[in-house]
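Morning F.,

Quick status update on the modeling queue. The single chain you submitted on Monday has been processed. Sequence for confirmation:
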Amino acid sequence: MFHNPSNTYPYPSRRTATYAKNGMVSTTQSQAAQAGLAVLQRGGNAVDAAIATAAALTVVEPTSNGIGGDAFALVWMKGELHGLNASGPSPKALNAERVKALGHNEMPLHGWLPVTIPGCPSAWNLLAKRFGNLPLSDTLSAAIKLAREGFVVSPTIAAQWQQAADIDDKEENLTATAHWRSCFLNNGKAPKAGDIVTLADHADTLETIANTDAQAFYRGSIAKKIIEHASNTGGYLSAEDLASYEAQWVEPISVNYKGYDIWEIPPNGQGMLALMALNILKTLPQEQRESCDTYHKQIEAMKLAYVDGQKYITQEDKMAVKVIDMLSDSYADQRRQLITDTAMLPKHGKPVSGGTVYLATADNEGNMVSFIQSNFHDFGSRVVIPNTGICLQNRGRSFSLNPKDANYLEGAKKTLHTIIPGFVTKENQAISAFGVMGGFMQPQGHVQVITNMIDFKMNPQSALDAPRWQWLKEREVAIEHQAPPFIAQGLKNKGHDINILADAESFGRGQIIVRDPTTGVLCGGTEPRADGYIAAF
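Structure tokens below.
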């Protein structure tokens, strides 16, 4: 795996792969990566570094994630892989009939209706308690300092911030969302790249979470503020909803792809889509990366995975089929037979974009973490709890109001979740922590970076630099503009409806750390389509 040490094949890279032996943090923001690195350098492990980086990302990248969001993690610790699902269910008092009674035909994007119980604070606490060397008061200190003393806005985040400020949505102007603009805009204006922004309320909230091991968020002073705002502005969250919540340890799921075990979090996450597509692809020849045949096979396999995923994936105990059956070799064999030389037309739900951050960490003891957290769409629901800096997520947007759908909205139910961390092992040794964020692009990105590294021997940076595709709907496929022109023409000849896009954000943002199991040397790649950064020593 990853036998190509240079970054010249087959694409000129915007940066080279990063190598280190003592520790590494790869994420979208340099200030957050440095927070994680500092923890490693003062005796923290990969888990401590992940928590520090994740908390810092809620400050420096509020456009994509926050304290009021969800998280998932895959943790390799002392020779064993652990999964953490820190997604939250809908409020017990909310259901589809209540939403429809308010005049909605689908779940809205802003306001209280799409808000689910946040999982991030619980994730940080459980990770620290089980695997960390340091307390939250230590690992969150850098994030608190950034929020209180100010951070510099990076170019990508400035652009996303402006896009959010330009949104005109009637749901944004509710009493519940009245504090968003005063919290995140300065006199109605989004910050520009290079501006220094302070988030004092955010700092105070992080400090309270750190000093109470996150208990204040679910059962203390912060919970009281959340429930008070809900009560005053028509929200559905209750004190019982928050007090009864805790992130869940789960058994990761996997398939073997050409000698490597590829791991994902089980449903309600959509990571299973990547595994299903890889299961279909693993016996199909993919001789050249930049060939129309390779693109076509990957796209068709992804379509087949999505058809099943949109039909069945929801909270696992409410699924109509078993995960083990969907990942079986016999089922993959059946699905593989449907791939021909012509683009198929499956039935599906149209993928949408999302707001997420991903990070990977590794230490010099062999431990690695693949961690992802999100407010789902942009800043989330725009529901900002007064005097806390907390913007609650809008993950409930993914619920359906159709009782025939797997993700039909019920009280205390988890919906299909787009955020997915990935991990690779071989012969029970950790090989790679990886992820590609971006709504329903994520499993498609996972398939592409895994095939880049395993089939085409690319190192992590080359795997991320390579042009990407995204299946959108029906026969419609987006191809990144730097892909060779003959790819687009060849796919058109096979019946695909091709859109060539220059919008890098449409194709996700990834991070990868690979560990050599023999020497322990770490090799990292970071996303060229964002303000990606690797901190290492």
